[in-house]
Amino acid sequence: MRKVYTPATAANGVEHVLKLLEGRWKLIILFHLFDGKVRRYSDLEKLIPGISQKMLAQQLRQLEADGIVARKIYPQVPPKVEYRLTPWGQALCPALDTLLKWAEQKDDFPSSAPAR
Amino acid sequence: MRKVYTPATAANGVEHVLKLLEGRWKLIILFHLFDGKVRRYSDLEKLIPGISQKMLAQQLRQLEADGIVARKIYPQVPPKVEYRLTPWGQALCPALDTLLKWAEQKDDFPSSAPAR
DNA sequence: CTGAATCCATGCGGATACTG
DNA sequence: CAGTATCCGCATGGATTCAG
């Protein structure tokens, strides 16, 4: 029997999984791999203004280690490396999509973010 | 005419909204306010093991300032303060729900997280 | 092109103590 | 009960340099 889904209790235990998405750039990166898109390292660098090489590489390494992103290396000169979502990463797409739609809804709610 | 939704371009510009969810405890807190639930400060403190008063208060302040969480103070002794989601915060629930389901799917994907 | 390595500043977040 | 105030360590992340 599969575990019954209850929002009330579900919060206990998902922290560990949620932590995999922590990090300033992870969600941004994932959005750019949305939909099964395949990106090269340099593509992501251009697509994400403000990110440093170190951060891009580091967050990609972590996403890879966590089984969310897959890396494919083409042994050639100059090097070519492609990133895509793993099956589990793909499963995250609906959540990303919902998150995206929420973000876009912001303006539909008057006086939502009064400023910080 | 409303903006057309395209995952490819949508990633540009949502960063700002996504940042509102950054912070080690924010998602956890939101999960405990899921579904229109109303929680007192002390409730959240008990529900979230490991969080410090400072962090709980700080993240709540930020979520409040960002229009995601609403605070209601009962002027009485001893003090009583309730937290709930704002309408915009409520709109986030579907996304939280999808995220939760993704987290629970983890075991369905063999060799997902090989360890770090 | 795709990184790894290093140095360094910022600030996040923890622990503790204090208050209305 | 529901916070604020303070101190502080360490991880996060930026800039730069080097390398296969």
Describe the structure.
Two copies of one chain form a homodimer. By secondary structure, the first copy, chain A, is an alpha+beta fold. Chain A has one domain: Winged helix-like DNA-binding domain superfamily/Winged helix DNA-binding domain (Arc Repressor Mutant, subunit A, Orthogonal Bundle), CATH 1.10.10.10. The first copy, chain A, has six helices and three strands. In chain A, strands 1-3-2 form a three-stranded antiparallel sheet. In chain A, strand 2 and strand 3 form a beta hairpin. The first copy, chain A, is globular, with a radius of gyration of 17 Å. At the A-B interface, helix 1, helix 2, helix 5 and helix 6 of A face helix 1, helix 2, helix 5 and helix 6 of B. Chain A binds a DNA duplex (20 and 20 nucleotides) through residues 23-25, 40-42, 45, 52-58, 73, 77-81.
What class would the helix/strand composition of chain A place it in? Answer: alpha+beta
Helicity level of chain A, as a percent range?
40-55%
Number of domains of chain A: 1
* Counted beta strands of chain A: 3
Strand proportion of chain A: 5-15%
